[in-house]
Specification:
four-stranded antiparallel beta sheet, 16 strands
Length: 191
């Protein structure tokens, strides 16, 4: 996240006040609405967050599909709310309000509950994905063009990238100064 966030912020800073900033925002920004509701006490809260990527937690110790990670992130959950000695069942959930043409997805693998341990759970993804189950937005098919991998622990490690070249649609691994061609099957299996 830090890498793409830093690049986009620096670009926006350098181009402040220009049409290009608006174009960058239109290309990358996702809008997610976070909602909380507690009907027994007439409480409803909604706010929208705009971000240049979607931050999806990986909350599984077994292999999980990216689709299921996103579904879990957006699902409606109940929680107890206490007021004046009374307990009320309330709900919170998220909704996707805007999908950008380019959607960076960050898989948050850091377990913040204990020791900032990095989860190594494989996340299974395909080369294309529809978001129609998560939004009412038309033209929501996404194709995978790049994957950034991190090997190591939460505070240190090494990054390399797998990137699809155009127009050949061949996949390549970029690891420091080494570039090698890979099969797309290896890309999908290697999560």
């Amino acid at each position: 996240t830090e890498f793409i966030y830093t690049i986009l912020e620096k670009l926006k800073e350098e181009m402040a006040g220009t049409e290009q900033v608006k174009q960058l925002n239109e290309m990358f920004q996702i809008v997610i609405s976070s909602k909380k509701e507690c009907k027994p006490i007439n409480f409803y809260n909604c706010y929208e967050e705009t971000s240049d990527f979607i931050n999806i937690p990986v909350n599984s110790d077994k292999p999980i599909k990216l689709y299921n990670c996103i579904k879990e992130y957006l699902k409606k959950c109940s929680f107890d709310y206490f007021q004046d000695g009374n307990k009320y069942k309330c709900y919170e959930w998220r909704e996707i309000k805007r999908l950008p043409p380019v959607l960076p997805i960050y898989l948050n693998r850091i377990n913040h509950t204990n020791t900032n341990e990095k989860l190594t759970t494989p996340v299974i993804f395909t080369e294309s994905m529809y978001f129609d189950d998560f939004s009412n937005i038309i033209d929501d098919k996404y194709r995978l063009y790049a994957v950034l991998y991190h090997y190591g622990i939460a505070n240190s490690g090494h990054y390399y990238a797998l990137i699809r070249e155009f127009p050949s649609k061949e996949w390549y691994k970029y690891n420091d100064n080494k570039v090698s061609k890979i099969k797309s099957k290896k890309l999908i299996d290697k999560n």
